[in-house]
User: Fold DUF402 domain-containing protein from Stackebrandtia endophytica.
Amino acid sequence: MQEPGPSSIHPPHHETWDGDTGTMRNREGTVRRLDACEVTHFGLYGRRMFHRAASRAIGQQVWLLPKLGLRVISWIPRPGVTDIEDYYIDIASITTDGSRFHMTDHYLDIRVWTGERATVVDQDEYVAAIRAGYLDQGTAEQALHDVFHATDGLARHGYDLSGWLMRDHNIRLTWEPR
Assistant:
């Protein structure tokens, strides 16, 4: 695997999700209306369909979980796509301002296949981001803590995201059927 160099690594992605307006501002600064949005005591749920051709998915359901430093995505696959993971987890810092959630991606991600396995990905981007100065020492250490905490919890609960979150954190995620 070739590591991205400092010239090819991107700055951290920032997004803002607004529970009052039902919108999210993506990393390019474009504001998108959410098809569904709910703020709970533990996070924010958002669902949106894509308005462009995506390779494997036509939409996504997202939970932002600030206390755990996680953005959990359940892709809505294109008809006929069967090889997509059950959950894609971004390691991130998430702060709140009322019903507004500000997310900064920390490069590390986890792909989860329920009952089977979890795989940490994008370590090359994480290392390149540190080298490029996009992650300071404290942020880099927090990202490692969060990825280890999540993968350990998933493993201890048989790679069952819902089971881990409910049993260890009293968090019950709800999803619309795919």
